[in-house]
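Table S4 entry, 2OG-FeII_Oxy domain-containing protein/DIOX_N domain-containing protein.
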Amino acid sequence: MEVERVQAIASLSLSTNSIPAEFVMGEKEQPALTTFHGPVPEIPTIDLNDPDQENLVRSVARASSEWGIFQVVNHGIPNDVITKLQAVGKEFFNLSQEEKEMYAKPPGAQTIEGYGTKLQKDLQGKKSWVDHLFHRIWPPSSINHKFWPKNPPSYREVNEEYAKYMRELATKLFTNLSLGLGLEGHVLEEAVGGEDLEYMLKINYYPPCPRPDLTLGVVAHTDLSAITILVPNEVPGLQVLKDDCWIDAKYIPHALIIHVGDQLEILSNGKYKSVLHRTTVDKEKARMSWPVFLEPPGELVVGPLSQLVNEDNTAKFKTRKFKDYMFCKLNKLPV
């Protein structure tokens, strides 16, 4: 299978200090040539426990408008819950290839859920240095437990606990984002599905790579989601494009990274910016991350909010079903 081939390539490459040509990015993408190394502003960090509510709203809105990404501390998810989430994810990726394959995405399936190697291809047909596991963690009606590992045994319990805290954090974020647009606090979360909003967890596993200067874990992209809430590990690798420079996201222990996704940019009619980001890899250590993509149900129609559109600020985006937007983007059709 393709997954086994890539892992074999990784093992071979580590012994030869080279990587196959299909993993070598073009010069405009290679981290060694495109990462900015001078003094740069840091991605904003926001304390969600800020007692000054107006300042909190202002900070969230400014970061979402100017950066499309920010880190949050005092976010309400206990450290031990995050530690357990990371532990069971790491245990899964340490299993034998045969056992991981039990959760593989079925060939030809329409869903993205399951285990596999993303092998994301850009227009030049290049491949990314990453394995992954996708599955929904909310709402219960959308969960398919056949993609939830049974080993380690605590995997389900840990993820269900994480989902409970994740929902509380999502509501807090959407409320502040709504207020930042001059809207009532409930507007954005309802506009992306409310109780039917889907929480898609992805675990990214980036094996050690002998030539991290030449390849990427994930090529530059924006997220399809409304927002993405990400748990990193201590191995750095997330980069964002800011003022035409690729800059590294600083690792902050116990902080979560919040990405503005495409649907939030559309709903805000461009006020909030969907962040262009990519992932680098490490020569010595495996990098892992746990993003949760907050996505509208497929049939939900998403477009610029009517409250934000007028003669002076006309709609900048199409209004359509989320599943149609997703189809166009995944198939590199105009969106």
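The chain has one domain: 2-330.
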